[in-house]
Amino acid sequence: MSSFRIAVAGFMHETNTFGPSKAGYDAFVEGGGWPALVEGPDLIASTRNVNIGISGFVTAAEAAGWALVPTLWCAASPSAHVTEAAYETIAGRILAGIAAAGKLDGIYLDLHGAMVAEHVDDGEGELLARLRRLVGPDLPIVASLDLHANVTAKMVEAADMLVAYRTYPHVDMAETGRRAASLMARRLGGQRDVKAFRQLPFLIPIAWQATSMEPNRSLYGGLADREAVGLGSISLAMGFPAADFADCGPSVFAYAPDQATADAAAENLCAAVLAQESAFDGTVYSPEDGVREAMRIAAMATRPVVIADTQDNPGAGGDSDTTGMLRALIACGATEAAIGVIVDPAAAAKAHEAGVGATLAFSLGGKSGVEGDAPFDILCTVEALSDGHLVASGPFYGGARMQLGLAACLGIGGVRIVVASRKAQMADREMYRFVGIEPEAQKILVNKSSVHFRADFEPIAETILVCAAPGPMPVDPASLPFTRLRPGLRMSPNGPSAP
Ligand SMILES: [Zn+2]
């Protein structure tokens, strides 16, 4: 039996068009919290057993006996726009790899779905359309997407099938790749589904998108049941509400053998989300109110109170270096408290130069020019040093090897600070332990993350609070200076409409 030949590739970026820094080619070469850019045969080995879509797809494809043609896979930390040079270099190499692959039976792409480049608003739609032009109308193209994808009609049109993660924190990235492989198998088996695509009329703040909380617990929990009634696949994408272009926002996409079934499934799911519009909400504290509330709860608790420093989430385009929450911890006199990660390569290098035990002045963080934020001038003691290598063992990173560059634990009063040189979202307890902080032993932990930290920290948290210190990812998307959303789109649940 001749086996199917499937090309695999990946190009992932979540773009906050209001973020402080763009993603150039080097950001993809390095990968940030992701595996480094890899091309050709090494792709399979270097992404194996990592919690990413292509890893799950490859595992399932190998089990099915398909012959894989690896082209290029890369991802960068969320940030402002992908530069034109980076986009064209990477897209060009993926297309060249596929053009040179010879006869193929299908293509799988590991995509995010919320990439905006300097010259292209719809990064994935443009990539998929170029690919479709290259291979013609009949070669199956299947792509997995992030739950935060801002899906466009152009993406849906160019791909045979799109399938999105169903968890936030994204513990099912590899699982979604496996689902993409089963959809590819369905297509290779001769079932060519038709599509239904609907966009929802309001943006959803990421802090209230967690799938462990309502309403998403029920909405996502019900997808498999919706699929069971004659659908090939149905996905709900929450959207990434910090991309200023017409297709920003949540969407539903369904695939079925006939149009009526696909349309009905998409309409029903949209109605279910719309009925929950008011439920995408929660309490947001100012930095000092949040720290005081955490101290009050911690006084009686045996487990840490965890605070999300949500507006500087590097997973949403922040630089992970704002100082508002650190200032609040110190101003309120918090003790047995830790905060991470503050990315400041100069401070990390200075700590390494001074050595453990030294007390010296730092002008810490606050370098990204975020309005309302500034470097924090403080006297700290260097408590521990690290070369930045760690294995993130929690369920979100899923065993990923991280390289945060020179890193240190700085202490001031009862507060300890994880300082590193490269950014990655604080979503794993090992990101405290690698500089000698035992997260379980703290009364208060402040994590620069919006939701992904919940996967590894909910099990040890007394409670979780959300705080809004000045940062580039507002907890309320309606406060962003959007100018290019589609008219009528509500900029938050029950919020004001886009002009
Ligand atoms: Zn995401």
Q: Given the helix and strand composition, which structural class is it?
A: alpha/beta
Helical fraction equals 25-40%
> Please, how many helices?
15
The shape is globular
How would you portray this structure in words?
- This protein is α/β, with parallel strands linked by helices and 499 residues long.
- The chain has 15 helices and 19 strands.
- The protein has helices at 25-30, 42-47, 53-63, 84-99, 123-135, 153-158, 173-188, 216-221, 223-227, 259-274, 287-298, 324-331, 345-354, 430-433, 454-457; strands spanning 5-12, 38-39, 67-75, 106-111, 141-145, 161-164, 194-199, 233-237, 251-256, 305-309, 337-343, 359-364, 376-386, 389-392, 400-403, 407-412, 415-420, 444-447, 463-467.
- An 8-stranded mixed sheet has the order 12-13-16-17-11-18-10-19. It has a 6-stranded mixed sheet with strand order 2-3-1-4-5-6, sandwiched between helices.
- The longest helix is centred in the N-terminal third of the chain and has 16 residues, at 84-99.
- It is globular, with a radius of gyration of 22 Å.
- The mean pLDDT is 96.
- Bound molecules: zinc ion.
- Zinc ion (ZN) binds next to loops.
